[in-house]
Description:
Elements: H1 8-21, H2 25-41, E1 45-47, H3 50-57, H4 61-73, E2 89-91, H5 95-101
Antiparallel strand pairs: 1-2
Helix pairs in contact: 1-2, 2-4, 3-4
Amino acid sequence: MKRVMVDSYVIDVLMPDLIGHDRRPAAFIVYLFFLREASINGRDALSVSLQTIATRTGLSKSAVQAAIRHLRRRGLLDPAVVATVANPRRRVLRPWAVAGAGRR
Length: 104
């Protein structure tokens, strides 16, 4: 079993925001899935089907689709990367990390 490090921002800020404020717990689960996959693969661009995400998270495929739409609107998944059935490519974003880098 591999360990995955999660920025405290994800738990302290993003979780209450997505679950409590937006009322989108599935979006938080899907985002955690993407963060884990990105960490394991060592890159932010991932190719993973909706069905695989649904199976691995325990969510329905339609819940995954809605979560991905929400994450794109929130700027947590790159909206410029267009996923298709043949090429289910997505890129996970960490906007807080970019903002924090400028403060050093």
